[in-house]
Amino acid sequence: MQLSMPSMKLALFDFDGTITNKDTYTEFLFSVSSRSRISLGLLIASPVILAYKLGWLPASKTRPILSRVTFWRRCCHQVQRGADNYVTHTLANHIRPEMLEKIEWHQSQGHRVVVVSANLDILIKTWCSKYNLEWVCSELEVTQGRYSGRYLKGDCSHENKVHFLKQHLDLDLYQYVYAYGDTEEDYPLLSLANEAFFKGKPYTCR
Questions:
Q1: Rounded to whole angstroms, how far apart are CA atoms 147 and 142?
Q2: What is the mean pLDDT of residues 76-98?
């Protein structure tokens, strides 16, 4: 993770559906997987996918399972090449221009900007590095240059967004906090803010 000197104001951005115009997690998994891995993965994970689509399994429980199937024993360097290609050629088409402008505005004001996402560090750090942004997200375990498929700390969603963020920085340093999100997974993050936005509109914490 990148570190920067803290400023008096902090801006927190969810990634999928907030900075992007769609959920990129599943598309990213497909983009960095071979056809054989996709076929085997769909066979193994089909009950999980069905349970998710039927509403029996929340996204926060589904993502770690799909990540395990996708990245188990994968070479880190090989996956990184796929992530670089996805960020350059595909993800760029999903970034909301108005949100990128908002991020750049916060940076121009000297605010500390952090992307807080349930998506994977392989993707998030690759994109954030292009814009000199910090990130807090779901992280995959690496063993001897390969991914185990397991999450290091858990899925970075719901209350974990706040928990992981507090491990990354000291919230007490900031007099004013902005937060941007688009799903109920972001509610705890939005609750930290003096000024929160949900799907682009002002949000009053429930």
A1: 5
A2: 96
Mean pLDDT computed over every residue of the chain: 93
Q: Are 19 and 13 in contact (CB under 8 A)?
A: yes
**Over residues 17-36, mean pLDDT:** 93
Sequence length of the chain is 206
Q: Do 58 and 151 touch, CB atoms closer than 8 A?
A: no
Phi and psi (nearest 5°) for 25?
-55, -55
Q: Is the pLDDT of residue 196 over 70?
A: yes
Using CA atoms, how far apart are residues 149 and 75, in angstroms rounded to an integer?
11
Across 169-173, average pLDDT = 95
**Confidence band for 206, pLDDT divided at 50, 70 and 90:** low
Given a cut of 60, whether residue 5 has pLDDT beyond it is: no
Alpha-carbon dihedral sign for residues 88, 92, 93, 94: positive
